[in-house]
Specification:
heterodimer, A: 239 residues, alpha+beta, Jelly Rolls, Arc Repressor Mutant, subunit A, 3-stranded antiparallel β-sheet, globular, B: 318 residues, 2 domains, 4-stranded antiparallel β-sheet, 34% helix, 17% strand
């Protein structure tokens, strides 16, 4: 059953006025989000939005030839499926669970009903969407100007902010899809970080050993995105 | 004075047809031939997709402006005082890295608006909005948009749909910057410019293109030379004339999506049927589109949705 404490682990839900959350509660379905699950594909009708609590979801852009690149990360600070209330087209991306965990989902009908009330909920969701868009834009900058090494650091930090603890469990394949490289490229990048003492890496298990060093090694894109999220969603500090 | 305004029927083609008929020759700024003698809002497709009531209200606060190349509409980190709806100007949303490198995260023309952060409630823009191609635009005070958000009015679906399209363009750019090279990216960028302007000429130097793409000028020069040798473009003193648009499209990556199309995700894969064509806005530059016609499929074989399907977007009720 859905307990109040679980719901509040998602920070958007926690930011709702209590009366609003009470109204949503019967429709919020607790779900498990296993590693690699695809929440939606481009071209498929969205039936739910998801509010992760301790899972991390990657929004991946997939090219015609199958090459992919991560556009943004979503965790407990947000929701997956903004296109539902933004209407029309949407980010042409695939949403994949990058780090297993749990969350809640709300069906399309209820989401739109709540959004269309045009009150607190709409304002909160639009500000969240702006933060998400800013993250996407920063990824565009990062992919143009920064090295794979820096991008991996940035991504590790964004992920850590969305989890408890310092452990990340992913698959090499998912990391490769996220970075848009072959698996060998992932191993190479991760080994470098390990050699520098920043992480311990073994077949998809990543332990971050030295977070401050990770922040120094990352490009500024991590800080830019974090600052924007903190600004747009006050009272919801990440990490 | 103004002839009867056709925009009252959302999705009307008449206003844009009138603009095409008076199309000035390339290179000439709109102010040199005088402003179009039409009612406020026409020529921009967000405004053209609005309901009549909202547009009438906004019209009282709108003025037409001539945007000059290089003009900064809003600096990064600040809040726009006005919302701008380009007609035949193109505005770049530029991001700068700590070491001063730049990249254009999106191009905005007649399909859109500058002022998304005001609409979304975050106010401050993370990017600089700088005019890349001069032209005319409609402008209104930002508070009008803010009020619209507060009211949750019938314009919101149209506006949010554009924001979705903008986000899609940024997502596309992120992926493009990961996977595609300068040759393809230059083609993509030239096409984006053409989509949003009149004629086949872009006033763009190699330096400007380098700033937009976030590469060295030498890289742009090399790529442009290749295109010139292939007879695709002619470049002379800052002016790029496109001689072979379909050649440009053939060389572009898939990341060029016409601004009036949106990639589908979260909607049924089926595009609108032939009957829908009559109800929806046709892009102003339809005549210059690729030979594929009005409903070009995406390269993946899926038909694209229209950015502003007019009548089928029911207004929100609060």
């Amino acid at each position: 059953m859905t307990t109040p404490a679980d719901l509040l682990h998602n920070q958007l839900l926690a930011a709702l006025p209590p009366a609003e959350l009470e109204r949503w509660r019967p429709s919020l379905e607790a779900v498990s989000l296993p590693l690699g699950q695809v929440l939606y594909e481009p071209g498929v009708t969205l039936r739910h939005v998801y509010f992760p609590t301790d899972a991390i979801v990657s929004l991946l852009y997939v090219m015609e030839n199958g090459a992919s690149a991560e556009i943004a990360v979503v965790g407990r600070e947000g929701l997956v499926g903004v296109s539902l209330f933004m209407g029309g087209g949407s980010t042409p991306s695939r949403a994949v669970v990058q780090s297993a965990g749990r969350g809640f989902r709300l069906d399309a009908g209820h989401m739109n009903e709540e959004f269309n009330r045009a009150g607190v909920v709409m304002h909160l969701l639009l500000r969240y969407t702006q933060a998400l868009i800013t993250q996407m834009a920063q990824t565009a900058v990062c992919n143009r100007h920064h090295s794979l090494d820096q991008q991996l650091c940035r991504w590790l930090l964004l992920s850590l902010d969305r989890l408890e603890g310092t452990q990340l469990v992913m698959t090499q394949e998912l990391i490769a899809n996220m970075l848009g490289v072959r698996r060998e490229g992932v191993t190479e990048a991760a080994v470098k970080l390990q050699q520098a003492g920043l992480i311990r890496y073994a077949r998809g298990h990543i332990s971050v050993l030295d977070r401050p060093a990770l922040e120094r090694r990352s490009c500024e894109c991590y800080a830019v995105v974090k600052k924007e999220y903190d600004r747009l969603l006050p009272g919801l500090p990440l990490s | 004075m103004a002839r009867p305004r056709a925009v009252a029927e959302a999705g009307s083609m008449n206003s844009t047809a009138a603009v095409s008929a008076h199309r000035p020759p390339p290179f000439v700024l709109l102010s040199e031939v005088g402003p179009p003698s039409d009612a406020p809002g026409h020529g921009n497709q967000v405004l053209g997709a609005l309901d009549a009531t909202t547009l009438a209200r906004w019209a009282m606060q709108m003025q037409e402006v001539d945007l000059k190349r290089g003009q900064v509409l809003c600096e990064a980190g600040s809040t726009a005082l006005h919302v701008t709806f380009p007609v035949d100007a193109t505005v770049s949303l530029l991001s700068f890295t700590r070491d001063g490198s730049s990249v254009e995260v999106a191009a905005v023309g007649r399909e859109g608006l500058i002022g998304m952060p005001v609409l979304m409630g975050g106010d401050n823009s993370a990017w600089r909005a700088e005019v890349q191609a001069a032209g005319s635009a409609w402008r209104m005070p930002a508070h009008v948009l803010r009020e619209e958000l507060r009211l949750g009015g019938p314009s919101l679906p149209v506006l949010l749909r554009y924001v979705q399209s903008l986000a899609a363009q940024m997502a596309q750019t992120a992926a493009c910057n990961r996977h595609h090279g300068i040759d393809q990216q230059l083609c993509r960028r030239l096409l984006q410019g053409l989509d949003r302007s009149r004629g086949d000429t872009l006033l763009m130097t190699h330096e400007a293109a380098a700033l937009l793409l976030g590469v060295r000028r030498e890289g742009v020069t090399a790529a442009a030379l290749k295109l010139q040798h292939a007879g695709i473009i002619r470049y002379r003193r800052g002016r790029i004339e496109v001689l072979d648009r379909s050649g440009l499209q053939a060389r572009s990556c898939e990341c060029h999506v016409h601004p009036m199309q949106v990639r589908l995700a979260g909607l049924d894969g089926a595009g609108p049927g032939p009957g829908a064509v009559r109800r929806t806005l046709r892009p102003v530059c339809a005549a210059r589109q690729s030979p594929q016609g009005l409903w070009p499929h995406t390269a993946a074989g899926r038909p694209s949705a229209r950015l502003y399907p007019a009548q089928d977007a029911a207004p929100r009720t609060t």
